Amino acid sequence: MMIHPDIYAALARERSRAFLAEAKAARLSRPVPRPREGRPSEGRPVRLRDGSAVLIRPVRPGDAGLLEDGFAGLSDRSRRLRFLGPKASLSAAELRYFTDVDHRDHEALGALDHARGGGVGIARYVRDREDPHAAEIALTVIDGWQGRGLGTELLARLSERACQEGIRRFTAAVAADNAAMTGLLRNLGADVVGREFGTLEYEMALACVPARRARLRGNAPGAVELS
User: Which of 22, 149, 166, 188 is least buried, going by the fewest C-beta atoms within 10 A?
Assistant: First the structure.
């Protein structure tokens, strides 16, 4: 029996709301930890494979404007792939959830255009409340910066942060037609663990050793950029 596209869209919106609820619950249920020594606060400049430079740093509560501008830089297709359904705008509540993170159970790393300062990409994880060693990830790169290796770099940094916080496994819900993201996850050794309503569920173990970063970066020259 065929399922009507409107039902798919409703299920996708529910999936997005569930991700936001996980972020909110993680933020409210645990105390905000003190910054650890060595944790980057201002970020580090990174040179991508096409020669462009970005600054990758933790997302701050004051970054709501940057997030809105970055969202405006996404095509309708990129928004659909990221949120698993149509998405016209970000609400004030969503902007708070996405930027007011505790950097432990909910981490978010943003990439800024080093030359112009605008937001060009973001990666986040939200720890699973039932399994503290697992976290769901989401990555977004604005359309004009796709294909440069930024997604791979963001995922490498996010993996490092997850390992520092005791996370050993990433999960991801990806639209089945998101060839870029599914290709990247396959290249990194992620396995498909479920299929439902046009969405693929992936799981990827984190080695949590320096070699893991080398593996992620090693894919950069031929990696498929994510949306």
Answer: 166
